[in-house]
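Here is one chain, start to finish.
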Amino acid sequence: MRKIILSTILAVGFAATTTMAGENTGYLLQLASKQEMLSQNIMTAYKKGDRGTSALEVVDALKSGHLKLKSAIRNPEIDNLLVYLNYRLDDLKAVVKKPYSPKNAQLVAEISASLSEGSHYIARTLKHAS
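Its structure:
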């Protein structure tokens, strides 16, 4: 009985994602994949030595993408994840404004990994829903 209830909840969750995303699922999947790729490129942008300008551009692009995803997907779990990812972007923005150092580079790498993982989860959820 417990398995049936859990399966039903998961099916309803995926159906709700599909319903809310509508016909834009392909676009949203592409956007989520782009978000994952941008997250993986933050470290390269941070290492450029341009006082974080390149990394800040990536952060702004990620924030813009998160806003688009949040407005198009009406799934409470994804909404909560996007809120968390935006907090991580705020953390990242603060770090990349600081001078380059091994400690700051480690923080950028850790935040980048969590952003990438979150974007991957969103893409995977959208893919299962389509």
